[in-house]
Design a protein that fits this description.
Elements lengths: L2 H16 L4 E10 L6 E10 L22 E13 L10 E13 L22 E3 L3
Parallel strand pairs: 2-5
Antiparallel strand pairs: 1-2, 3-4
Length: 134
Protein backbone atom coordinates (compact mmCIF):
# COMPACT_ATOMS: atom_id res chain seq x y z
CA UNK A 1 0.00 0.00 0.00
CA UNK A 2 1.13 3.51 -0.71
CA UNK A 3 1.99 5.83 2.19
CA UNK A 4 -0.67 8.28 0.96
CA UNK A 5 -3.37 5.59 1.14
CA UNK A 6 -2.31 4.53 4.65
CA UNK A 7 -2.29 8.14 5.87
CA UNK A 8 -5.69 8.77 4.28
CA UNK A 9 -7.10 5.66 5.93
CA UNK A 10 -5.70 6.65 9.34
CA UNK A 11 -7.03 10.19 8.94
CA UNK A 12 -10.45 8.86 7.99
CA UNK A 13 -10.59 6.51 10.97
CA UNK A 14 -9.46 9.25 13.34
CA UNK A 15 -11.90 11.79 11.92
CA UNK A 16 -14.81 9.35 12.07
CA UNK A 17 -14.11 8.78 15.77
CA UNK A 18 -13.94 12.48 16.62
CA UNK A 19 -16.86 13.52 14.40
CA UNK A 20 -19.68 11.90 16.29
CA UNK A 21 -22.99 10.83 14.90
CA UNK A 22 -24.84 13.29 17.14
CA UNK A 23 -27.39 15.26 15.10
CA UNK A 24 -30.99 16.50 15.09
CA UNK A 25 -33.33 13.59 14.52
CA UNK A 26 -37.07 13.52 13.80
CA UNK A 27 -39.19 12.54 16.79
CA UNK A 28 -42.91 12.45 17.64
CA UNK A 29 -44.02 13.66 21.07
CA UNK A 30 -47.44 12.56 22.31
CA UNK A 31 -49.06 15.14 24.61
CA UNK A 32 -52.33 14.89 26.47
CA UNK A 33 -54.01 16.59 29.41
CA UNK A 34 -56.53 14.88 31.65
CA UNK A 35 -59.14 17.57 30.97
CA UNK A 36 -58.77 17.53 27.17
CA UNK A 37 -60.52 15.17 24.76
CA UNK A 38 -57.56 14.42 22.48
CA UNK A 39 -53.92 13.42 22.51
CA UNK A 40 -51.72 15.59 20.31
CA UNK A 41 -48.96 13.99 18.20
CA UNK A 42 -46.26 16.62 17.60
CA UNK A 43 -43.51 16.20 14.99
CA UNK A 44 -40.30 17.78 16.26
CA UNK A 45 -36.54 17.21 16.26
CA UNK A 46 -34.44 16.05 19.19
CA UNK A 47 -30.72 15.46 19.59
CA UNK A 48 -29.85 11.82 19.18
CA UNK A 49 -26.81 9.80 18.27
CA UNK A 50 -23.45 8.49 19.35
CA UNK A 51 -20.82 10.43 21.30
CA UNK A 52 -17.35 9.18 22.19
CA UNK A 53 -16.88 8.55 25.91
CA UNK A 54 -14.04 7.32 28.06
CA UNK A 55 -14.27 4.13 30.05
CA UNK A 56 -14.63 4.97 33.73
CA UNK A 57 -13.45 1.58 35.04
CA UNK A 58 -10.29 3.25 36.30
CA UNK A 59 -12.11 6.08 38.04
CA UNK A 60 -10.28 5.51 41.33
CA UNK A 61 -6.94 6.01 39.58
CA UNK A 62 -7.88 8.99 37.40
CA UNK A 63 -8.72 12.61 38.12
CA UNK A 64 -12.36 13.56 37.70
CA UNK A 65 -11.40 15.83 34.81
CA UNK A 66 -10.03 12.80 32.93
CA UNK A 67 -13.39 11.03 33.07
CA UNK A 68 -15.68 12.06 30.26
CA UNK A 69 -19.19 10.69 29.78
CA UNK A 70 -20.52 12.81 26.95
CA UNK A 71 -24.08 12.67 25.68
CA UNK A 72 -25.71 13.96 22.52
CA UNK A 73 -27.32 17.21 23.67
CA UNK A 74 -28.64 20.52 22.36
CA UNK A 75 -26.23 23.10 20.97
CA UNK A 76 -29.04 25.34 19.70
CA UNK A 77 -32.75 24.92 20.27
CA UNK A 78 -35.93 26.91 20.05
CA UNK A 79 -39.34 26.43 21.58
CA UNK A 80 -42.61 26.13 19.71
CA UNK A 81 -46.10 26.07 21.16
CA UNK A 82 -48.96 23.85 20.07
CA UNK A 83 -52.67 23.98 20.86
CA UNK A 84 -54.14 20.77 22.32
CA UNK A 85 -57.60 20.26 20.77
CA UNK A 86 -60.73 19.44 22.72
CA UNK A 87 -59.89 21.29 25.95
CA UNK A 88 -62.63 22.97 28.03
CA UNK A 89 -62.50 26.76 28.41
CA UNK A 90 -61.15 26.63 32.00
CA UNK A 91 -58.04 24.66 30.89
CA UNK A 92 -54.89 26.14 29.37
CA UNK A 93 -54.72 24.25 26.06
CA UNK A 94 -51.13 25.14 25.10
CA UNK A 95 -48.03 22.97 25.21
CA UNK A 96 -44.49 24.30 24.58
CA UNK A 97 -41.80 21.92 23.40
CA UNK A 98 -38.14 22.14 22.34
CA UNK A 99 -37.01 21.85 18.73
CA UNK A 100 -33.36 20.91 18.16
CA UNK A 101 -31.67 23.24 15.67
CA UNK A 102 -28.16 21.82 16.17
CA UNK A 103 -26.56 19.28 18.50
CA UNK A 104 -23.22 18.62 20.19
CA UNK A 105 -21.53 16.05 22.34
CA UNK A 106 -21.14 17.36 25.86
CA UNK A 107 -22.18 17.11 29.46
CA UNK A 108 -25.88 16.58 30.06
CA UNK A 109 -27.55 19.76 31.33
CA UNK A 110 -30.47 18.87 33.59
CA UNK A 111 -31.94 22.37 33.11
CA UNK A 112 -33.37 21.29 29.74
CA UNK A 113 -32.55 17.60 29.24
CA UNK A 114 -33.56 14.31 30.80
CA UNK A 115 -30.18 12.76 31.53
CA UNK A 116 -31.51 9.32 32.47
CA UNK A 117 -32.40 6.76 29.83
CA UNK A 118 -35.68 5.18 30.84
CA UNK A 119 -36.45 1.67 29.65
CA UNK A 120 -40.20 2.13 30.08
CA UNK A 121 -41.99 3.47 27.03
CA UNK A 122 -44.02 6.52 28.12
CA UNK A 123 -44.49 8.36 24.84
CA UNK A 124 -47.93 7.14 23.78
CA UNK A 125 -51.57 8.24 23.72
CA UNK A 126 -54.43 6.95 25.85
CA UNK A 127 -56.99 9.20 24.10
CA UNK A 128 -57.95 9.67 20.43
CA UNK A 129 -54.99 11.13 18.55
CA UNK A 130 -54.75 14.37 16.53
CA UNK A 131 -51.72 15.36 14.47
CA UNK A 132 -50.19 18.78 15.16
CA UNK A 133 -49.97 20.86 11.99
CA UNK A 134 -47.78 23.93 12.28
Amino acid sequence: MSPFFVMSLLFGLTFSQTASLCAPSEYIIHVEKRECAYCLAINTTICAGFCMTRDSNGKKLLLKSALSQNVCTYKEMLYQTALIPGCPHHTIPYYSYPVAVSCKCGKCNTDYSDCVHEKVRTNYCTKPQKLCTM
